[in-house]
Amino acid sequence: MNKVRIDKWLWSVRIFKSRTVATDACKAGKVRIDGEVVKPSYQLSEGEVVWVRKEGFHFQYRALQLIEKRVGAPIAVTCYEDITPLAEKKKYEDWFLNGAPAAEKREKGSGRPTKKDRREIEELADVMSTLSATPQEASAAGINDSDKYVHGSPMKYDGPVERRRTGAAFLIP
After folding, report:
1. Structural domains of the chain ordered from first start
2. From 69, 77, 102, 159, which residue has the greatest number of CB atoms within 10 Å?
3. Per-residue pLDDT tens for 118-142?
């Protein structure tokens, strides 16, 4: 077999879950060969490097063997060589193992958050991102060592603040 359709090959070596998804990726410009966006009907040859954008990550594969029928994973791995840069692989593994950033969890039956709840959630996310910031990022954001800490977070303390959570009010000293 000298050549095979790119969408069929991507599906048969299990880079995409279905042929339709592979075809849609080609149509959306997420599949390239030699820097050129290819159509689903592009005829792939052995040895060509296929660049695929999937889940926001950029993968590169070299076609070693051309197949048209979908095969098991152990056989599919022998049909291509993964030449994705290590930095991109590491980013993908971290994302895959840790999962995508989870949305805020709510108790079942609590319903959709109100505008006030959403603002509090966004404020908490800002505080959490500040906590994970490096010292250089924190100083750029205007947070320095002279700032007082409230519950371990680098927030300026302006006195008692009343917070309401689920109907119960409490004061942060």
Report:
1. 3-98 (3.10.290.10), 115-165 (no CATH)
2. 77
3. 888 888 877 776 666 555 555 555 5
